[in-house]
């Protein structure tokens, strides 16, 4: 402990003894460290510290004010010339200190050194900014003297802007970004494989043109049939895609027809062909013996029967029959049948299965149920428009159920075909080759082959509107819900059709589901 206390009191004397005993100078002493620290302090604070000409050692007196110039120099010389312990006297209470003893630096001195370093760094950065600004256009004005959009924003010289951005404005970062984005898109387009599908190249949806009915065209299939027209008068409500084709065939085969349509202009070609036009559905019922109805949805079918100027406005339907050809659910068919029977009329549901082309060729399928006598009286009409006719019993609703089941099979098949062809397209495989190979397999069917060719060509001319197919799926799912029947695949198929409708293909052919699968 005595040695430690002696070293603390006079570290220089202890260091000298160690040097003499070892024969070599001690590699580092406390005095050396003090000299190094004092030298750093004198470099960073030349105005605050004074050093002698030999070692730059500064005498620090704790608790006293700064020493005046002459007194500080005298103290430094005494420290350099002698190893004794002279005392330093200041104006404050007298304190005797040994020149060899070094007082530890106060914390306030270290904090001051750190602050000085930070100030020096900040000064250096400010000088650099001033040098940069000296070579640039002054803030707040562009090359033409007009104020810039934002303060403190660098302005690129016009020549550099013209060289780098091909004429873009030097003061418009938006123009520069636009050029960079265009260059990026161009590079991506160059890298993209030619056979890859561009998701951004989705075709523009155009509304399909309404095809005018050609009253002069005749189906070869229909011409070959030996049809004897009935003597009864047949009324027809609704001249849509299917209704107009059916009425044209009935007129061609010599049937007497009375028609009505919401849009009266559609009736004109049929008037020229020999049909009679009425103003309201009730007028058609009065003039006809058997009334056919073919509209787009169950709501429209009910409105024609129960609505204003509808069929039931004629209270007595004795000796008259009503045939529902619209695609409806069983409950709607039952409601209409009950209303007709309450007015002493007869009711038959005759669901038609097929497309517009099949209707034009007289190749539909008729699924009938209800009054058997009405079915027999309509025999000549069914023979005109259908290749096969099925009577499914007197229970109203059976024909609707069978038709919706068939529509479910068709819809699920179309979605599967669309997704398969979309996958082939992503592989850059020719869709026509896929269809040709498909035609040679046991899976082939006239429907899928026809729809596949439409998908390959991108021709979605409506033969069976996509909205009608989605309507049928909705009716099927409602029936299944009432029976707690799970139909997950049909549900997903319905969502695919709904999404395709949202894309704008509601009035296109059902084969337009390919667009949704492809993009």
UniProtKB/TrEMBL annotation:
Transmembrane segments: none
Record's GO cellular component terms: chromatin
Biased composition (Low complexity): 82-96, 106-126
Superkingdom: Eukaryota
GO biological process: transcription elongation-coupled chromatin remodeling
UniProt keyword NADP, yes or no: no
One Pfam family hit: NAD_binding_2
Annotated keywords: Chromosome
Molecular function, one GO term: DNA binding
Domain 3-hydroxyisobutyrate dehydrogenase-like NAD-binding, residue spans: 397-513
InterPro entries: 6-PGluconate_DH-like_C_sf, 6PGD_dom2, 6PGDH_NADP-bd, HIBADH-like_NADP-bd, HIBADH-related_NP60_sf, NAD(P)-bd_dom_sf
Cellular compartment(s): Chromosome
Domain 6-phosphogluconate dehydrogenase NADP-binding: 234-393
Disordered, as annotated region: 1-34, 63-174
Chief subcellular location: nucleus
Subunit structure, as described in the record: Binds to mononucleosomes. Interacts with male-specific lethal (MSL) histone acetyltransferase complex at least composed of mof, msl-1, msl-2 and msl-3.
Protein family membership: Belongs to the HIBADH-related family. NP60 subfamily.
Protein name: Cytokine-like nuclear factor N-PAC
Source organism of the structure: Drosophila guanche
